[in-house]
């Protein structure tokens, strides 16, 4: 049996990491850009949040982390649009540089401890009781999910969506694709940094390696959501990203409940990611086999 504590933890982390899935939904699905800045932007959010929270401003740490994440996305967009560096390479370059930036933000220490500092969760704990962690992360994620969907329906949002669909047509319509790409990547990385910022205060520590593999986990969550949610309106796709993140965390929780050695967690995570990303191809391969079996039976 899964205890309530495990369920709460999976929901909390699912909503928390769903911000990364939403960020990748914007960059990977809407803009059609493989943004590799995700790992570094996530750690940047952790570092900024922890440093400002230790200084006594846990609430200010969240918008500050988003601004820093947006700056990281802006650097990637600058490399891509102005210097004509391919998107994947531009993200890798920014991600590499962010390692030193993140260390500098944390005072050139590999981790920051917040055990004696106030956080978002300790501030609301007296008012929310047992859900003092779940309710804030769920509220933050759902609110930003709604705002993202509404933004993508605005004139600028439609231009960003059009840039991902057909950049040549957008340029022919006298729309600056460099600007739309920059805005999209800034928003995406601000969401990623916010996820890192909330995680740092959630676990009361920040580590230089917290963002490692975050882009793969985010893509797995996104693809799980796309598999479960039918294609259709924009809000369904955003909701699918959130649900995919929650389901991914429940899968990880179930794997941990099987009393497997902790050393196997990376292998389990890699297997889940591979299956999640390969699921559409597996389903596509099974359909012809099913049709042939039906024909043979007739």
How would you sum up this structure in a few lines?
By secondary structure, this protein is mainly alpha-helical.
Q: Oligomeric form of this entry?
A: single chain
- Secondary-structure element string: HHHHEHHHHHEHHH
For the terminal residues, how far apart are their CA atoms? Answer: 44 Å
Largest sheet: 2 strands, antiparallel
Mean pLDDT: 89
Spatial strand arrangement across the major sheet: 1-2
The proportion of residues in beta strands is under 5%
- Total helical segments: 12
> How many E strands?
2
Any idea what the shape is? globular
The low-confidence runs, each spanning 5 or more residues with pLDDT under 50, are: none
Which class best fits the helix and strand makeup? mainly alpha
**Helicity, in percent?**
over 70%
Radius of gyration: 20 Å
Describe this structure in words.
This protein has 298 residues and is mainly α. It has a domain at 4-211. Helix content is 77%, strand content 2%. It has 12 helices and 2 strands; from the N terminus they run ααααβαααααβααα. The protein has helices at 4-30, 38-54, 58-81, 87-105, 120-128, 134-151, 155-165, 167-172, 177-203, 214-228, 234-257, 265-297; strands at 111-113, 205-207. Strands 1-2 form a two-stranded antiparallel sheet. It is globular.
């Amino acid at each position: 049996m899964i205890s309530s504590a495990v369920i709460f933890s999976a929901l909390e982390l699912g909503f928390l990491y769903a911000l990364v899935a939403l960020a990748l939904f914007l960059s990977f699905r809407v803009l059609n850009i493989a943004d590799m800045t995700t790992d570094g932007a996530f750690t940047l959010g952790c570092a900024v949040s922890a440093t400002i929270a230790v200084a006594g401003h846990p609430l200010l740490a969240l918008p500050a982390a988003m601004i820093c994440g947006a700056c990281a996305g802006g650097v990637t967009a600058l490399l891509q649009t102005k210097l004509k560096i391919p998107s994947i390479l531009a993200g890798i370059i920014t991600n590499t540089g962010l390692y030193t930036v993140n260390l500098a933000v944390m005072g050139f220490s590999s981790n920051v401890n917040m055990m004696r500092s106030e956080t978002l969760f300790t501030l609301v704990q007296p008012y929310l009781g047992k859900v003092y962690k779940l309710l804030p992360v769920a509220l933050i994620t759902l609110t930003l999910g709604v705002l993202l969907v509404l933004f993508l329906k605005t004139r600028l949002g439609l231009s960003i969506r059009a840039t991902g669909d057909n950049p040549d047509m957008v340029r022919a319509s006298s729309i600056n694709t460099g600007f739309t790409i920059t805005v999209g990547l800034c928003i995406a990385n601000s969401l990623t940094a916010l996820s890192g910022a909330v995680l740092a205060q959630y676990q009361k520590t920040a580590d230089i390696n917290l963002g490692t593999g975050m882009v793969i986990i985010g893509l797995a969550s996104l693809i799980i959501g796309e598999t479960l949610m039918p294609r259709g309106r924009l809000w369904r796709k955003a909701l699918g990203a959130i649900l995919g993140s929650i389901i991914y965390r429940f899968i990880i929780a179930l794997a941990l409940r099987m009393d497997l050695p902790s050393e196997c967690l990376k292998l389990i995570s890699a297997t889940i990611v591979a299956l999640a990303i390969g699921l559409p191809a597996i389903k596509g391969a099974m359909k012809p086999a099913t049709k042939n079996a039906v024909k043979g039976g007739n």
